Amino acid sequence: MLPLRVVDEPLTLLTCATQLSRPDLVALADAILWRANRDGRADPMLEALAFGRRRPGFARLVRAAPLRRAGVRSRAETLLRLMIASAGLPEPVVAHPVLSTERSPHRWRAEADLAWPLFGVLVEYEGDEHRTSRRRFATDVRRFDRYADEGWRAVRATRTDVFEQPSELMGRLERRLRDGGWRPPRGWRLRNVGPALA
To answer: Which of 37, 93, 162, 172 is most solvent-facing, going by the fewest CB within 10 Å?
Structure first.
């Protein structure tokens, strides 16, 4: 039996564009793009933009489209990425592969949620399951030790960082990036960002 497709993704994007805030619309577009890539399909956003010109929400979808990125695995990751851009920090690479080198006695591979490879900085969003699952917690501790062994400046971001107090996290990211060699343009200042809506 073939699976029944119940949701038309391009139409969903157009419909939700009339209802969602821009960050949440981008999060939806990221999730749909992730699923399309996983299934080997074209990006549904392209179809929505091709046929939706006269539909409500089209203009909002056009503004959200350039902000979507492949590889994002959660709404919180999208919101964090957008906050980083709003703060004026350089855009991170999404789902960056991190591989063991000769520094490590074991061969391993991880995928950082967001990373600045040029500056050796990465950030991982850790939802509640990272705290409540013993297995997940042990894996996270080992992974962060491996990041450090390979010279990465790893930052852990939590729900509080994204939905309550993002300014402290943005300051930490700025310091890690500067420690890694990032030099902002003359006159640059870290912009204050408000928390995302839960």
So the answer is: 37
